[in-house]
Amino acid sequence: MAQRNSFGYCWRQPVADARDLRHFYASTLIAANLNPKVIQTRLGHATSTETMDTYGHLFPDAENLGRGAIDAVFAVALTEQGRNQDAN
Fold it and tell me: What are the C-alpha distances in Å from 72 to residues 3, 22, 23, 75, 85?
């Protein structure tokens, strides 16, 4: 029985390291703003639900997504409108 415990003990650190590396990879893909479906495929998850259940806490808060997007569109439109008025 001692050998079995020794064998298991030998694998604990490599398994922990592999999990850390996988988590680093997933969090890097999320930080790069990849689509969750792409991340699911790259991690080999069966469903995007599995990906979100595991790494959902790393995704930006849905309430913050798109904040400023409308302001940015209007800023471009207003800038363009100003240029057109100056040209006349």
Answer: 64, 35, 33, 5, 20
pTM of this prediction exceeds 0.70:
no
Domain count, the chain: 1
Q: Which domain holds residue 54?
A: 2-87
Per DSSP, the residues of the chain read: -HHHHHHHHHHHHHHHHHHHHHHHHHHHHHHTT--HHHHHHHHT-SSHHHHHHHHGGGSPPTTTTTTTHHHHHHHHHHHHHHHHHHH-
Along the 88 residues of the chain, how does pLDDT read in single tens digits? 445 667 778 888 888 999 999 999 999 999 999 999 999 999 999 999 999 999 999 987 767 667 788 888 888 887 877 777 777 6
